[in-house]
Design brief:
Layout lengths: L1 H8 L11 H74 L7 H14 L3 E7 L3 E2 L3 E12 L1 H12 L5 E12 L2 E15 L2 H16 L1
Antiparallel strand pairs: 1-3, 2-3, 3-5, 4-5
Helix pairs in contact: 3-4
Length: about 210
Amino acid sequence: MANLMSQFQQTSGRDPWLWPIVPRLVVFALIAAGVAILLWFLWLVNFKDELEAARAKEETLRAEFSKDYKKAINLDALKKQREQAIQYVNLLEKQLPNKAEMAALLSDINQAGVGRGLQFESFKPGAPQLKDYYAEQPIEIMVTGTYDAIGEFLSDIAHLSRIVTVGNMEIKKKNPTDERLDMKAIAVTYRYLDPEEVASVQREKQKQQKR
């Protein structure tokens, strides 16, 4: 112990490279420890920055995943709605007659009135109004019959396998002494356009766009 103490006493005022071995080793050890602590501190600071960056990236990925997940859910819902819309359109298409079937539909409307005991004063199909892919077929109807018979006739039309709407109705008593009523209305049904009619409609639209 005395020898060690004497070695440290010999360091006073001398060049460190001339110090005894033990003091030099102690100083070198302290310097090495200081450098190690400094390097560890720098690594810790850098690690903290990397950790915070990783956490920020994780939050971003979580947000993106949540957003994509919601989109996926919405996409499934939209696909389901689209399928339902297609099914509904297909159902409506089945209710639209073609040009050849229109005569049979007009006959069905007429027979619905006759079957309810109505007297037809007028049953006059008008000129078809061509749309993009279908045509509206107006029919001027004038019938005479009881209130119940007219109501049942309108109900029968609503339940036909084809789409028929009735509007512009005017109902009045035939005369003060007669219980029957006169009804004037415009029934509108719809049909497919044949390929020639579709082409004609498209040509007309192109002409209007050029004007």
